[in-house]
Amino acid sequence: MNPEHLRALLEAVQSGQTGVDKALTELRDLPFRALGFAHADTHRHLRTGFPEVIFGTGKTTAQIATLLSELGKGGATVMATRITAEVAREVLAAVPGARYLEVPRIVVLGPAPEPTRGRGTIAVLSAGTADIPVAEEAAATAELDGNRVARIFDVGVAGLHRLLAHRETVEKAEVLVVVAGMDGVLPTVVAGLFSRPVIAVPTSIGYGASMGGIGALLTMLNSCATGVAVVNIDNGFGAGRMASMLNRVRA
User: Fold this and answer.
1) Rounded distance, CA 166 to CA 140, Å?
2) How far apart are CA 185 and CA 40, in angstroms?
3) S-S: 155 plus which of 53, 104, 163, 218, CB 3.0-4.6 Å?
């Protein structure tokens, strides 16, 4: 249940449009719904401002479909990450109204919110084209949390002039998500050029000595530039959510 739906329910009870018993029926599954294979956290949206996200890896198609349907009750827009195209076809057949974002491998149920929850724009940068799936996971997450997102892809340090060509867009952004594999240097460069918080995302892209993203992760953790925070390898979702929280308009 999302905060807007809960407020509308309470206001309906207050005005007499909805009875107490009906309201209790809608609220009976808080704070979680037991599904046998999982405890769907129906209270998370109220606690944190963002619904529980389904991590698709390791789950069956039926489990993913059930969780999407259960968490989407009450009007919340929910998402499942790391969904292959094959699994997505089966999930979409089982969950009417769901849609698949192929590049970030995300299944979404519910409408995309208006981009009105953030102070400004979140810019998502990728060092290379191979980093785009992780960058798109961050961008899609931020958009599903009601933010405007600018995408700037393939601007790694091997051709730094490509980044500088987008200087105006980057400077106008409130928060920067910078995704890089290989040497993982781009977040440090960006933080050294722009006075914006940088969320660095190492990816598992790279040759042998990159050790599946560990090389990029260590580079980012050892950044000499200020204002750089680092999430886990390939964690585009975590970066997108953190960027959204930093960009949030406070009442």
Assistant:
1) 21
2) 39
3) 163
How large is the greatest C-alpha to C-alpha distance in the chain, in angstroms? 66
* Mean pLDDT, range 195-224, rounded to an integer: 95
Its CATH architecture, for the domain 121-247, is 3-Layer(aba) Sandwich (3.40)
pLDDT-derived band at 113 (thresholds 50, 70, 90) equals confident
DSSP H or E run through 101: strand 98-101
Q: What's the rounded Cα separation, in Å, for the pair 4 and 117?
A: 13
Higher-pLDDT residue of 73, 204 = 204
Sign of CA dihedral 207, 159, 130, 203: positive
Q: Which two tokens stand for residue 93?
A: 């057949």
How would you class 207 by CB atoms within 10 Å of its CB: exposed for 0-12, middle for 13-18, buried for 19 or more? Answer: exposed
Q: Where are the chain's structural domains?
A: 25-109, 121-247
- What is the 3 state secondary structure string of 104-140? CCEEEECCCCCCCCECCEEEEEECCHHHHHHHHHHHH
What is the DSSP secondary structure assignment for residue 146, as one 8-state letter?
T
Instruction: Say what the pLDDT of residue 230 is.
Output: 97
- Please report the pLDDT score of residue 29 as a whole number: 58
Q: What confidence score (pLDDT) does residue 173 get?
A: 96
Token match 């810019």: residue? Answer: 123
Give residue-wise pLDDT tens across range 211-228: 999 999 999 999 999 999
